Amino acid sequence: MDRSGSQNTHQACSLFAYTLKMGLEMNFSSACRGLFLQFVVYRIDWVNSTHC
């Protein structure tokens, strides 16, 4: 009884850690993509302003 209970809590902990890790990686990649897009738009605006 006690062993299976502790195993269930361990599975829940590892699942929580896995989802947390995946969420962090997804947020990190989306944040990097957002920064990259902002940088590209900034560069395009800069090139347009210098040529005009």
Report on the structure:
By secondary structure, the chain is an all-alpha fold. The chain has one domain (1-52). It has one helix and no strands. The longest helix is centred in the middle third of the chain and has 50 residues, at 2-51. The chain is rod-shaped, with a radius of gyration of 22 Å. The chain starts with a helix and ends with a helix.
Give a short overview.
The chain is mostly helical and 52 residues long.
Essential attributes:
single chain, mainly alpha, 1 helix, 96% helix
Secondary structure layout:
Blueprint: H1 2-51
Structural class by SSE content: mainly alpha
Provide the β-strand percentage band: under 5%
SS element count, helices: 1
> Which bin fits the share of residues in helices?
over 70%
Number of strands: 0
